[in-house]
């Protein structure tokens, strides 16, 4: 349905003369392969000397359409806007992998080499991307600052893949221990991801059947700091039972694959073992650090359950160790540090249940420890779901980063300033789609000033 909407929106914009302006039509497009990986380069006739290096996201579902190697396809008007203003764009259709790999990084750098060989040496390269692509962007900027001028990672698992998957592993372990002890759902060593996901899905749904199971669902989610909010067009729920329903939807339709299905199986297959562990984890301490603690305590009180007993059960359950080789490989390939070497502006939703907002705090705290805070600014939108930004919000973030690169100083990056910039753009740049309500709306910018809570289990810890 989302793809049908994007196609329809593109057609409407074309009719209105907005999706195909003269500069877009006159741009030079270069397509080819790096090895076997497709790439696209697009250069407007009046190039401003900047290349935007796009890194796409990850889709866990086998057979799903491959993401485009070019700029953010969520927004039909964005490509034309960028070309109108002289930005060149480049990117590869790198292979689906659940973490940033050295192969992806090499291919993204190689497309810059192709740009120089076939067009000219860029004056500036801005790396940007969403989700996994945001992590790729961060790794590129941290490890290759001589090639990247600035970075705009959006909705990224910016604390690194080890921490990201440990958080999901804690959620899966709690569900398995407290709700599914008698069921054969696997949380590691998954050999048949389709069958395992088919076992998990009805069990996730059954967690809504009683106040007790709703409370345990929320407790499990709290270990990953997963927010109970899914609809990008609706406010954060205030009713606790509705919050449990939102957690079900997140686990069933967004992060379930990363815990029980293709995403988890793909991760272990690529790494040759399990990179996640909970040996040494104290789940009492984990709940105490969680941003979702209050919801858990209310649901347990409403259900008449003893929270301390369930935490003791989790702490007493047999723990699972990681394969050290898998951890070492995942760390070497995709670890981020907060050593912010180039001007970087991150963009994240406060209600992101796939890559939680608390990871952004970890990154900022690490940057401060390295003395690199001057290179980092972080922008947030008060909205549910993963990577749900409007084109106007992305443009506002890009322009703020460009100001830092142009002048050597950050302009005002408060929510008020970014909102003013974003709201200057017309309706075609402010369309938001709802994954769950299956609808669209034109929305104002939702920037908010916030300092997230600390991540419960960062790595290293």
Query: On the 0-100 scale, what is the average pLDDT?
Result: 92
Number of domains: 2
- Low-confidence segments, ≥5 residues, pLDDT <50? 1-23
CATH architecture of the largest domain: 3-Layer(aba) Sandwich
Task: Give the fraction of residues assigned to helices.
Answer: 40-55%
CA distance, first residue to last residue: 42 Å
User: What structural class do the secondary elements suggest?
Assistant: alpha/beta
Stated plainly, the CATH topology of the largest domain is called Rossmann fold
Number of strands: 11
Radius of gyration: 22 Å
Number of helices: 17
Shape: globular
Keywords: Signal
Protein name: Alpha/beta hydrolase
Organism: Actinokineospora alba
InterPro entries: AB_hydrolase_fold
Question: Care to give the gist of this entry?
Answer:
The protein has helices at 2-15, 22-25, 76-84, 102-118, 132-143, 161-178, 193-206, 211-222, 240-260, 262-271, 283-289, 293-303, 307-316, 324-334, 358-369, 391-407, 415-422, and strands at residues 28-34, 37-43, 50-55, 88-92, 124-130, 150-154, 344-351, 376-384, 431-434, 439-442, 447-448.
How are the SSEs ordered, and which strands pair?
Layout: H1 2-15, H2 22-25, E1 28-34, E2 37-43, E3 50-55, H3 76-84, E4 88-92, H4 102-118, E5 124-130, H5 132-143, E6 150-154, H6 161-178, H7 193-206, H8 211-222, H9 240-260, H10 262-271, H11 283-289, H12 293-303, H13 307-316, H14 324-334, E7 344-351, H15 358-369, E8 376-384, H16 391-407, H17 415-422, E9 431-434, E10 439-442, E11 447-448
Parallel strand pairs: 3-4, 3-5, 5-6, 6-7, 7-8
Antiparallel strand pairs: 1-2, 2-4, 8-11, 9-10
Helix pairs in contact: 6-8, 6-9, 7-9, 8-9, 8-12, 9-10, 16-17
Organism: Actinokineospora alba
Signal peptide: 1-24
InterPro entries: AB_hydrolase_fold
């Amino acid at each position: 349905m989302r793809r049908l909407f994007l196609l329809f929106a593109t057609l409407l914009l074309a009719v209105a003369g907005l999706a195909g302006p003269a500069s877009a039509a006159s741009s030079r497009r270069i397509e080819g392969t790096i090895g076997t990986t497709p790439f696209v380069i697009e250069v407007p006739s009046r190039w401003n000397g900047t290349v935007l290096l796009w890194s796409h996201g990850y889709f866990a579902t086998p057979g799903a359409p491959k993401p485009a190697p070019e700029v953010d396809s969520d927004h039909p008007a964005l490509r034309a806007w960028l070309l109108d203003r002289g930005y060149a764009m480049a990117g590869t259709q790198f292979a689906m992998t659940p973490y940033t790999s050295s192969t992806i990084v090499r291919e993204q750098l190689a497309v810059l080499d192709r740009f120089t060989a076939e067009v000219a040496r860029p004056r500036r390269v801005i790396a940007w991307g969403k989700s996994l692509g945001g992590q790729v962007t961060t790794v590129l900027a941290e490890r290759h600052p001589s090639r990247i001028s600035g970075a705009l990672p959006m909705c990224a698992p910016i604390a690194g893949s080890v921490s990201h998957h440990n958080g999901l592993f804690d959620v899966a372990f709690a569900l398995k221990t407290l709700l599914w002890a008698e069921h054969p759902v696997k949380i590691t060593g998954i050999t048949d991801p389709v069958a395992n996901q088919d076992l998990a899905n009805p069990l996730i749904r059954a967690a809504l059947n009683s106040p007790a199971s709703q409370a345990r669902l929320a407790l499990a989610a709290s270990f990953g700091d997963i927010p109970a909010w899914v609809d990008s067009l609706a406010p954060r729920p205030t009713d606790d039972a509705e919050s449990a329903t939102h957690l079900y939807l997140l686990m069933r339709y967004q992060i379930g694959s990363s815990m029980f299905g293709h995403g988890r199986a793909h991760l272990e297959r690529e790494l040759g073992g399990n990179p996640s562990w909970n040996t040494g984890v104290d789940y009492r301490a984990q709940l105490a650090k969680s941003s979702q603690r209050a919801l858990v305590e209310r649901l347990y009180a409403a259900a008449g359950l003893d929270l301390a007993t369930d935490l003791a059960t989790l702490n007493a359950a047999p723990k699972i160790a990681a394969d050290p080789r898998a951890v070492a490989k995942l760390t070497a390939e995709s670890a981020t540090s907060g050593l912010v070497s180039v001007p970087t502006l991150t963009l994240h939703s406060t209600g992101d249940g796939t890559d939680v907002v608390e990871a952004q705090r970890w990154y900022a705290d690490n940057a401060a420890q390295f003395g690199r805070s001057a290179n980092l600014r972080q922008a947030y939108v008060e909205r549910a779901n993963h990577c749900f930004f409007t084109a106007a919000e992305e443009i506002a973030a890009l322009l703020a980063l460009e100001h830092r690169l142009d002048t050597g100083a950050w302009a005002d990056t408060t929510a008020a300033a970014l909102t003013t910039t974003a709201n200057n753009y017309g309706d075609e740049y402010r369309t938001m789609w709802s994954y769950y309500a299956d609808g669209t709306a034109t929305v104002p910018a939702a920037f908010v000033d916030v300092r997230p809570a600390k991540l419960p289990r960062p790595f290293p810890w």
